[in-house]
Amino acid sequence: MSKKVLIVTYYWPPAGGPGVQRWLKFVKYLPEFDINPIVFTPESASYPIVDESLNKELPEDLEVIKYPIKEPYKVAQIFSKQSAKTISKGIIRENNRQSLIEKLMLYVRGNFFIPDARIGWVKPSVNFLSGYLAENDIHTVITTGPPHSLHLIGFKLKQQLGLKWIADFRDPWTTIGYHKQLKLSKSSQKKHKDLEKQVLNIADNIIVTSNVTKKEFLKITNKPITVITNGYDDETLKKYSLDKKFTLSHIGSFLSKRNPKILWQALSELINEFTSFKDNFQLNLVGYVSDSIFESIKKYNLSNYINNIGYVSHEQSIEFQKKSQLLLLVEINSEETRCIIPGKLFEYMVSKRPIIAIGPKDSDIESIIKDTNTGFYFNYNDLQTLKNIILECYNQYKNENLKTYPVGIQKYHRKTLTNSLSQLL
After folding, report:
1. Rounded CA gap, 283 and 302, in Å?
2. Percentage above 70 pLDDT, the chain
3. How many CB atoms sit inside 10 A of residue 170's CB?
4. Which of 12, 168, 275, 361 could cysteine-pair with 207, CB 3.0–4.6 Å?
């Protein structure tokens, strides 16, 4: 008889964006390892991004329990619809660009909704699940965050029922990039730290997506921590014709703090120095792009080379990845972001298009790209090296031999990763 497991997740189809992919794929493959997943998720959630195409990926026999949620962002929209929507996406503008209403919303979000704006869903969910789990003979619960308030559901169910609880961290908690921008008081900072410590020390097992996060959490808890990264699935194997232009494509949100000015400078210099490069280059921006990114691009006289696509479905994003000559991945240049491994990295890798990645020194992204031979990694001061590599890639493009030769990427297939998860269960 299959083992039943309840998965508590906020992001679920029709939610779009990277947050939904991880558990959508785990749920797809868990039955092959004799595990029956049951999903618990909000009803009528206020998702900042919607992708209806993901509904097609849901297994037909999957049991999904939807429970009502009251979303504070819906109330916030009364005061400023645009600001509420932007903040709910995790997009926080620089302090000098924030309006008074944005600053107020961030203060309220950071100090009155701890750990996050979905805290109000915890108590009613626990009340409902306490009965449901007992009635359906389910003894294992997995919570996935962010939002990290969902871990408090697992925490309280563990206390009440003594079941097995696994906490999955897709991103860190108190060291995540935007945490410092929430205008937290000292008492609020302490509450976050205390909750994080409680979760890490009460959960039976902890899953993280990077080795850097594992090292961080090992300073807080002695509980077993397993690294299970994000990955790729078979839909990325479809073939597309490459772009005629020398395209460099960034897929996903391009936030202001990820502004790679050395890249804009390198591209600007190559355009000025090589007429052929100028005639063939195109920068594809697929997803949300902050105003400061556009301003920097304009400053370096690159505006005429932009193909600004905007948000597309996951299926369409795969097409852009497969058709592009080069793929761009940028992470914030900070100590805290060394652990961040965007889910798109693995889809980039299997697209077999070279990756140009820019980020902090000694990051997990750097290790993965080098180990799999899927592209090039640069720090924020590697201007000349970056410029040389792009020119080298361009010459290969002109000779029609720009490609990668990946090694060892099979371990990042979603089914392989689900096997690792099944061993914990």
Report:
1. 9
2. 88
3. 22
4. 168
